[in-house]
Amino acid sequence: MVMYSKLLKDFKEMYMAYIPLMIILSSCLGSVAAMYILMQERSLSQVVQLSLCVIVCMAFNASILAQMKAKFVFNLLIASLVINTLLVLLNIAFY
């Protein structure tokens, strides 16, 4: 919890400088996750995973464009990174 508050404080201080880096990081990881998802056989699971990947990345990018509060954007960044990383690992394990 202490680390989270320290990261959030640093994030709020440098918010404008982090925006391009966050968009690139989230979008690149999302596209890697989408690539691994699309390498699988066609199934309902693939559609659900790809939808989740796209929704999370788009929600994060939209929150930046809508100029949401820094804490909300930070939480969406963490969610985007965690979900897309899990999708990558899940699809690597079954590929």
What does this structure look like?
It contains 4 helices and no strands. With 95 residues, the protein is mostly helical. The chain has one domain (2-93). Helix 2 (15-38) packs antiparallel against helix 3, helix 2 runs parallel beside helix 4 and helix 3 packs antiparallel against helix 4 (70-93). It is elongated and about 45 Å long. The chain crosses the membrane at residues 15-38, 47-66, 72-94. Keywords: Membrane, Transmembrane, Transmembrane helix. It comes from Aquimarina atlantica. This is Membrane protein.
Any descriptors?
95 residues, mainly alpha, 4 helices, 86% helix, elongated
* Number of helical regions: 4
Counting DSSP E segments of at least 2 residues, the number of strands comes to: 0
Count of discrete domains:
1
* Radius of gyration, CA atoms, in whole angstroms: 15 Å
Poorly predicted runs of 5 or more residues: none
Proportion of beta-strand residues: under 5%
Determine the structural class based on helices, strands and strand pairing.
Answer: mainly alpha
Principal-axes geometry comes out as elongated
Mean pLDDT over the full residue set: 94
The N- to C-terminal Cα distance equals 36 Å
Keywords: Membrane, Transmembrane, Transmembrane helix
Organism: Aquimarina atlantica
Protein name: Membrane protein
